[in-house]
Amino acid sequence: MTQLGVAVVGCGFQGGIHARNVARSGRARLVACVDVDGERADHLARTTGAGRSGTRPEEVLASSDVDIVVVATTTHTHHELALEAARHEKHMLLEKPMAMTVDECLEIEQACSEAGIIAALGYKFRFTDAVREARRAVPSPSVLVAQTLYDPSPQGANAWVDDRALSGGRLVSSLVHSVDLLRYLSGEEIIRISATGASITGTADPDTTTASLLFRNGAIGSIVHGTAGASGLLSTWSFQTADLGTNATVHDHGRRLIVHRQGEADTIVVDPCGDPYEAGTAQLFDALIDAVEGETTELPGPRDGTLSLLVARCIEQAIAGGQAVTVPSL
User: Fold this and answer.
1) What residue numbers bound the domain in which 293 lies?
2) Which run of H or of E encompasses 68?
3) 113 and 34 assigned to the same domain
4) pTM
5) Are 138 and 204 found together in one domain?
6) 119 and 151 fall within a common domain
7) Quick check: 262 and 246 in contact, CB under 8 A?
8) How far is residue 69's CA from residue 74's CA, in Å, rounded to a whole number?
9) Which CATH number is 207's domain given?
10) Number of domains in the chain
């Protein structure tokens, strides 16, 4: 079978992870690395064995040897690149957030549907063993808690995230991950939100929030998310789901899981993946290949990208308005 050709557009931190995963997957060949910074694209192409590099994404999007496009660029470019990829009937893996606005997300959804292509969203943490086991341990949680507090980035690192015109806002840029995992772990949609926010790093918009959530089935949840710094209790990143007599806590960025059942010894699961960014992204890419080859697979798709951004924007709205917000139906 001829291997599928993959082009990575955007050769920064996440694009580098994608390129390395494709290069060592054995299931596809890395055709091209593209970035506005030609030297960065050249370097990634050389170190991963890509066939070529360049600075013009439109060239690889139209290329006959490219079957899948990985879009790992700044958020404000996602909409245009995704629509162009769909126009050329390229399957795609879109990094999060899916786009800047919900309307842009809906346009991407429609374009992918009309082109008959497979599109995956970069929600890699769904694919860690700890998250999968937590979902099996508590399949219908009545309470969910997410704590995703990150250390502020070093001066100058990821500066584009602080520019709302490029990222859509620091808060939303990373918050969509937490929202997606809560949707995934609950199996339900979030329908109502109350939230407060603050700017810990001095940005014009809030970069940190505490939010209370109501799910469609009556479950309740909370998010503490932002750049306030690390937690010494579990990790900078933890999710807990609970039902009567059982709870599951995923922490250490998806490397560890503790399952507690009343009257039993705790079960501790350690994922030996080492780096969940690399491992989860590799499994996400494998799932995309499966889907492109016609296999049935559980893949975060465009609707997941749209709904996660919708909820994140509603959290922003609740912060700004100081009152609860009902999540609109799409």
Assistant:
1) 4-124+279-301
2) strand 68-71
3) yes
4) 0.94
5) yes
6) no
7) yes
8) 15
9) 3.30.360.10
10) 2
- Give me the average pLDDT of each 10-residue run along the chain (330 residues): 90 94 93 97 97 95 97 97 98 97 98 98 92 96 93 63 89 94 98 95 89 98 84 73 96 90 92 77 94 92 98 98 96
Structure tokens at 86: 């769909």
- Amino acid found at 290: D
CA–CA distance from 18 to each of 29, 45, 271, 288 (Å)? 12, 12, 20, 12
Written as one letter, the residue type at 269 is V
Q: Are residues 143 and 253 in the same domain?
A: yes
Of 49, 46, 56, the closest CA to residue 26 belongs to 49
Note whether 25 and 116 are same-domain residues: yes
Pairing of strands 267-270, 256-261: antiparallel
> At residue 14, what is the residue type?
Q
268 and 293 part of one domain: no
> Of 206, 220, 229, nearest to 318 (Cα)?
206
Does 163 share its domain with 212? Answer: yes
Contact (Cβ atoms closer than 8 angstroms) between residue 208 and residue 227: yes
Partners of 4 in beta bridges: 28
Residue bearing tokens 């924007």 = 313
d(CA 261, CA 191): 29
Which strands form 143-149's sheet, in the order they lie side by side?
Answer: 267-270, 256-261, 246-251, 237-243, 143-149, 220-226, 208-215, 190-198, 325-326
